[in-house]
Amino acid sequence: MRVRLDYGREGLEVEVPDSAQVLHMSPTSGLEEVDRRLQEALQYPIGTPSLKTLAQNRKNACIVIADITRPVPNSTILPPMLRILEEEGESHDEKKHQRHNEQIKINRAFSLSHSILRGIYLPD
Q1: In whole angstroms, what is the distance from residue 57 CA to residue 74 CA?
Q2: Which of 23, 58, 108, 114 is the most exposed place for a label (fewest CB within 10 A)?
Q3: 13 occurs within a structural domain
């Protein structure tokens, strides 16, 4: 049997055995008050200290993000995370000067993952 998967921008059809049980996601409404809920999640995560606590007096951090094949609102999630890291990390003034460079790195990471997936990677 042919099954269409939500994959990439156009989907992907695959062949599965007729005996396979195909599960479908139930439609859900979007999250209300996204900014407030994101702030709560960052302040009170489940099973780990908050990002603010983890970032205190740290010199660097790494944020791993999903590539473009996943419907993740990185443009919504990243700014508050970067703000917390900037405010809580060591050397606030130095961090402010580096923020522009970090944003460039983030933009390049998005572009790189997008280019690689499209097969047109062009190094600087």
Answers
A1: 25
A2: 23
A3: no
